[in-house]
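Whether sequence alone determines local backbone shape is best considered at the level of individual chains. Part of our work consisted of pairing the sequence of a single chain with a tokenised description of its backbone. This step matters because it turns folding into a mapping between discrete strings. For completeness, the protein is quoted in full, as a sequence line and a line of structure tokens:

_____
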Amino acid sequence: MENHITDLIKKSLIYFDNQNNKYNKFLKNTKIHINEKKILSIKTDKNIDDSLKFETEILGIFNHQPNVFLWSWSLPYLGNNDTLISKELLNYGLKLEPSSNTVSHFFLKSLLVNARNYIESDFDLDLILALSSYILKDKYSFIYLINTYNKEKKIIITTYFLVKISIN
């Protein structure tokens, strides 16, 4: 089991990097209009085909002050239909059987089924995004992040959106 999870992590990181390279033009050349639940519109530069449609769902949020990542399925302001794809990650984690007592196995299961995950380093956050990318694969095209700053509380919140591209 140890090798399986180690291989999954390696494949996930490679897949995530490839997706970011493939969709780099969308990650770098867009203006986003959002509400707290969805990306309402994506305005692209003239090098991107405007006939594309973007469907979105929140994967999760990262609160920079306590260094906590929260899966979207645990956010109280999102309804059942707002978290359909991200709940697939929860279900994936719930289906993992404790067939081994390895640290890697417990890490993966606890990462996917715990609503709140403490992030010790940037790599931890990259690992969440990479594993999400690899497990969900064809359910979405790329992950788009938006940082918001709450002046009153003096905190930064990063919202990670799953974005699916389709043609109108």
About this structure: The two ends are 43 Å apart (CA to CA). The beta strands are 30-34, 39-44, 52-63, 68-71, 116-118, 142-150, 155-167.
